[in-house]
Design brief:
The complex is a heterodimer of chains A (257) and B (13).
Chain A lengths: L1 E5 L3 H10 L5 E7 L2 E7 L5 E8 L5 E4 L3 E6 H8 L7 E6 L5 E7 L6 E7 L8 E2 L7 E6 H12 L4 E7 L2 E8 L2 E7 L13 E4 L3 E6 H7 L8 E6 L5 E7 L3 E7 L2 E2 L2
Antiparallel strand pairs in A: 1-5, 1-7, 2-3, 2-6, 3-4, 4-19, 7-8, 8-9, 11-15, 11-17, 12-13, 12-16, 13-14, 17-18, 18-19
Chain B lengths: L1 E2 L7 E2 L1
The chains are: A mainly beta (257), B mainly beta (13).
Chain lengths: 257, 13
């Protein structure tokens, strides 16, 4: 038996909206430590890793480890039927072929349940090592969204370079070129409006803007986003989802032929 | 420029 209840159901709605265009399907792996997902996009250049801890839920029970194959477009259709203020409970019997989603309005006068058909999905589980990065940058998630959106209108790829001067995003295209530089800035009173640059060594990598732009669909989940960069390795774009866990996007760099 | 698949960077388990 698996059961997970979250009072702030809007978090689940936002999570699925952030993922559904990038990954069409994937396994929700549930265990007594929580719920996780690893899924690649269809072109296999990026990876989504979602971790939701059991203690972040208002109630969590998982008697047996299970992999629940989810079609995210279908899950999104069901979650759109939940109110933003609703409490959401996920439930499945052991070896079930469906996941039940129960929505409760705050006033308790409306309760609905939907069953989502589960799929059988073969998925490769990748071992992602914990590692030190050459540069880690925390910035307002709205700022990241604006940068990648603006640059997407100019070019297809972005060169991200982190130096002691700051972090620079550069692109070029038919209309011309663009450079946006952010400096370490802890002046704003609100921590979520600050920019932190932790640089161990300068690094410069090129990425496809289309994907970086797609990752910014997770902006409603967190006020800040963390970018981690190391030479020749995928960038990590990480959103902390309150006390519940995190969603991380990994994107392979573009390298010279 | 080319792009390696993401699973080339992480070992499978």
């Amino acid at each position: 038996m698996f059961e997970a209840r979250i009072t702030q159901g809007s978090v689940l709605k936002k999570l699925v909206e952030a993922l559904k265009e990038l990954v069409t399907e994937g396994n929700f792996d549930v265990s007594n430590t929580g719920l996780s997902l690893q899924a690649m996009d269809s072109s296999h250049v990026c990876l989504v890793s979602l971790t939701l801890r059991e203690d972040g839920f208002d109630h969590f029970r998982c008697d047996r480890n299970m992999a629940m194959g989810i079609h995210f477009g279908n899950l999104s259709k069901i979650l759109k039927c939940a109110g933003n203020e609703d409490t959401i409970t996920l439930k499945a019997e052991d070896n079930a072929d469906q996941l039940t989603l129960m929505f409760e309005a705050p006033s308790q006068d409306r309760i609905s349940d939907f069953d989502l058909k589960l799929m059988s999905i073969e998925s490769e589980h990748l071992g992602i090592p914990d590692q030190d990065y050459s540069a880690e940058v925390k910035l307002p998630s709205s700022e990241y969204q604006r940068i990648v959106r603006d640059l997407t209108s100019i070019g297809d790829t972005v060169l991200i370079s982190a130096t002691k001067e700051g972090i620079k995003f550069s692109t070029s295209g038919d209309v011309g070129t663009a450079n946006i530089t952010l400096r370490h800035n802890t002046t704003p009173e609100k921590p979520e409006e600050q920019t932190f640059i932790d640089l161990k060594e300068p690094v410069a990598l090129t990425f496809a803007l289309r994907y970086l732009n797609n990752f910014s669909k997770a902006t409603p989940l967190a006020p800040q986003v963390k970018l981690s960069l190391t030479k020749d390795l995928p960038i990590v774009v990480e959103y902390q989802v309150g006390e519940l866990g995190s969603v991380r996007f990994y994107l392979a760099p573009k390298i010279d032929d | 420029m080319k792009q390696k698949p993401i699973n080339a960077f992480f070992g499978g388990s």
